[in-house]
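Suppose a classmate hands you a notebook page containing two proteins, each written out with its sequence and a corresponding row of structure tokens. How would you begin to make sense of it? This section walks through that situation. The first entry is reproduced here exactly as it would appear on such a page.
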Amino acid sequence: PAASNWAGFYLGGHGGYAWKDDDFTQSVLPPVATGGIKASGWVAGWHAGYNWQYGRIVAGLETDFSFSDLRGDAGPGTRVFFGTTTTNVLGDRVKNLATARARLGWLPSDSLLLCATGGLAWGRLESSSTDTQVAANFTQTDVFRTTADRFGGVIGAGAEWMPWGPNWIGRLEYLHYDFGQFRDATVFTSNRAGDVPYAERRGRQTIELVRAGISY
């Protein structure tokens, strides 16, 4: 049995960096495909949980909440609707992230815990669309923003250790979030001279997060 005691309630803070992938595509015919948003930025927040210990096996439940500033834009896409040329730039921003997870770990030594985790994920995502329309007699730019709460799953792994005695725990962990498909699928066709067929495919939204933290 392990000599150290990992059981009980803990509370802590964390910070790290994340990368988000939204792999949608926009296709203009004849085939010209653009799209996909690569966002990145910082993440910081708090976590709390409870551990149960059975010899060198540690099981627990944890919840966390993070503020974030992941931002990214897609390359501009151009299409023609009814004689008007529209250039569109899509953007993503992640404002908040949270999870509720189960954890299961093993103690290779008394002061080191290796664990895997998985559970439910929530994110507040803001999508933006900047449209610049150019026609024979006018130019107009419109910006649209929508905020939505998205739910999905999260899995990950990490390591924890006790660098300053039995009450302080340092951690390093990796989490993978999957929020599924977000954007609607769109298809435009027209028999009007000069119009160009257009299609947009929904993309899967995933986030990769690496963060460090400390718990008491």
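The notebook's second entry, a different protein, reads as follows.
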Amino acid sequence: MKKWLLSLLVLGSILVMAACGNDTDNSKSNDENAYTVDKVQATYVKAPLNVPSIVEKEKGFLTEAFAEEGIEFGYSNLTTGPEQTQALASGDIQFLNAVGATSVISSASNGADIKIISMYSRSPEAFMLFGNSGDIKSPTDLVGKKVAGPKGTILHEMLIRYLATEGLTEKDIEFVQMDIPSAQAALVAGEIDFALLAGPTAYNMIQDGYEVVTDGEGLVDGTIVVATSEDFYSKNPDLVKKFLQVQQETLQYIDENYEEAMEITAKETALPLDGVKEMYKMYDFNMDITQSDIESMQKTVQFMKENNMIENDVDIKSLILNVE
């Protein structure tokens, strides 16, 4: 009798263990197939003068919107295009909220999963080339001179297109890779002849009496976009829609609370209020992607190929994600 009971208990234990094992396996399988999000991150880029990002962060619109879904929303201070696109590719960041079209094109050309979900801004006049001398009359005056700025950016494209108006190329100058603050400091110190600057830095240089050789008007559109990965969208379409909804609501808030938005921006950028208002006129923050935007970015693709900045062609239309 005892042996029979012992055998029954052993058999029962085996069946229970097997059942538990099956439950664990199913749970593991389900976990592997499930895709839950408890935290979302987006880049916070306030320069050149990204008023929507500045106002949105100050008011906490995205933080509140995602909290409603039980999701923690955070900001990344990665500001350079390569850093942003690499973080998106690694999954560390889900939204690139204000990234240059040049960076998106470069990333796509290298085979990365990156998609444009809306426009952020267009601001050709906000991108400028500064010089130390006041006698610059044409691109030929740059020949043999040292020009500094961020490579592979809208500013770099503007410089190349400016040189091209006189049949010149980058080979006719000495181009030095520098971020905007470094280029400004180098120009002030007399270490370079020209600097590619934008935003508050450019405004301050104008106030200090430095010459604007040219801006992007007629050369580049200054196209900045908002991007995510197709993988993230396919698994979280509602979160992408929510992000775009907040983007649109922020623009509406700025329109309806203009003075407050300008004051918030002035505080964040340490610019005078009048300066913010003056520069704000240079920007078009309409988030709709127009045919003109597509054509502009396609021209940028051609520019980047011609200047050996990318190897593989990129079809802009295929980069745009139709969020429905």
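A careful reader of the second entry would note: The longest strand covers residues 115-122.
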